[in-house]
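Recall that a protein's primary structure is simply its ordered list of amino acids. Everything else, from secondary elements to tertiary packing, is in principle encoded there. The following example makes that idea concrete.
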Amino acid sequence: CGKKDEGTKEEKGYSYIAEYAQMDLKCDHVAQTAVVNDILYMAGSSWNEENGISTNYFYKYDMADGILELLPLDISENSYINGMAAMEDGNLAIIVNNSTYDLDENGEPVNWQDSMDMWKLSGEDGAMLDSIPMDGILGDENTYINSMCIDGQGNYYLYNGDSTIFVLNSQLEKLCEINSENWINQMVSSKE
């Protein structure tokens, strides 16, 4: 009684419409992705059971033109891309885990060692611009980086796979640490 009917208010919303693309990839799976403008970069690998060798692949996909290109990025056997992110200048930063080991008399790996490098790649064609050894940069002699993202100010967030995210500025100087109670498989950053 006495109430005015104000009608229903329509809430504005957003709709997401997926666009699918058929890609002829040589790899068994894609492990890392990053987007620079309309270019999707993908890193993947395939495992050959017969010879026990893992082969790495690095792709560039132009989302506007629908063109897929396999880039000649030299990622050696037993090395993996652990993280990939777009930098504020439109280029890419990737974390490469280089693994070396010896084989014992039974053919089993022993003396396993990892070293981490950050490669900076051109956002235009994926060409190598710089390679920075990451060992010791987080305070440990044997630095391990499981995942990486970069924020809008150019700060790097590096997850060590053991509940700590290290935040570094664009010159790779440590700003702070963030402790996590849980495992983090991947990290991403919005444009902000």
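The longest strand covers residues 109-121. DSSP finds no helices and twelve strands in the chain.
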